Automatic annotation (TrEMBL):
The record marks D145 as: Raises pKa of active site His. This is Phosphoribosylglycinamide formyltransferase. Catalyzes the transfer of a formyl group from 10-formyltetrahydrofolate to 5-phospho-ribosyl-glycinamide (GAR), producing 5-phospho-ribosyl-N-formylglycinamide (FGAR) and tetrahydrofolate. The keyword Transferase applies. PANTHER family: PHOSPHORIBOSYLGLYCINAMIDE FORMYLTRANSFERASE. Transmembrane segments: none annotated. The lineage of its organism: Bacteria, Bacillati, Actinomycetota, Actinomycetes, Kitasatosporales. It comes from Actinacidiphila acididurans. Belongs to the GART family. InterPro entries: Formyl_transf_N (IPR002376), Formyl_transf_N_sf (IPR036477), GART (IPR004607), GART_AS (IPR001555). N(1)-(5-phospho-beta-D-ribosyl)glycinamide binds at G11, T12, N13. It catalyses: N(1)-(5-phospho-beta-D-ribosyl)glycinamide + (6R)-10-formyltetrahydrofolate = N(2)-formyl-N(1)-(5-phospho-beta-D-ribosyl)glycinamide + (6S)-5,6,7,8-tetrahydrofolate + H(+). The keyword Ribonucleoprotein does not apply.
Length: 201
């Protein structure tokens, strides 16, 4: 499968995919481009070090959010992906984008959805006093972190946890979960039936 990965930050999920692809000739996917909503981020450096094409589509360069959404969809479409992986991408993908890529866009979220959706899932779980949290890999739909769940991983919350410490522990699980899911979707194919994601064993 051809993957376009969207990032907004450090890109360690992207790096995990790059490493898995480099390590396993039978992984079943290749990253054909990396896109971002901002420049000057480590995620783009990682892509350039891997020799991958990159693109940056900034909201402020467009006179509406819808125009940005369309521009992002076109920038992605230029690389003809089979799957779009939103790995730490911090913008909501809108109608224009989903018109083309719904059902083919996977997101990873650092909480156990439906708990703690949105931009501060780790902070919210910690503040709530959750005893366990974790990460969710799901297909993107037109809500915020509401699409069909593909896989989840559980991480214990420790009494002395800070947001950063907890997020780092979550990211260790998240990277493995994302690599496993993307490989299975790419190799085995899948079907989405309502809220169920069916991947042949
Ligand atoms: C990940 O935990 C992702 O779920 C969240 O932000 C983090 C991004 O990490 N949205 P990275 O950019 O992949 O290192």
């Amino acid at each position: 499968a051809r993957l376009v990965v969207l990032v907004s930050g450090s890109g360690t999920n992207l790096q995990a995919l790059l490493d898995a692809i480099a390590a396993d000739p039978d992984y079943g996917a290749t990253i054909v481009a990396v896109g971002a909503d901002r420049d000057g981020i480590a995620g783009l450096d990682r892509a350039e070090r891997a020799g991958l094409p990159t693109f940056v589509v900034k909201v402020k360069d467009y006179d509406s959010r819808a125009a940005w959404d369309l521009a992002l969809a076109e920038a992605v479409a230029a690389h003809a992906p089979d799957l779009v992986i939103s790995a730490g991408f911090m913008k909501i993908l809108g109608t224009e984008f989903l018109a083309r890529y719904a059902g083919r866009t996977v997101n990873t979220h650092p909480a156990l959805l439906p708990s703690f959706p949105g931009t501060h899932g780790v902070r919210d779980a910690l503040a709530y006093g959750a005893k366990v949290t974790g990460c969710t890999v799901h297909f993107v739909d037109d809500g915020v972190d509401t699409g069909p769940v593909i896989a989840q991983g559980v991480v214990e919350v420790r009494p002395d946890d800070t947001e950063e410490a907890l997020h780092e522990r979550i990211k260790e699980v998240e990277r493995r979960l994302l690599v496993d899911v993307v490989g299975r979707l790419s190799r085995d194919g899948y079907r989405i039936e309502g809220r169920k994601v069916l991947i042949p064993a």
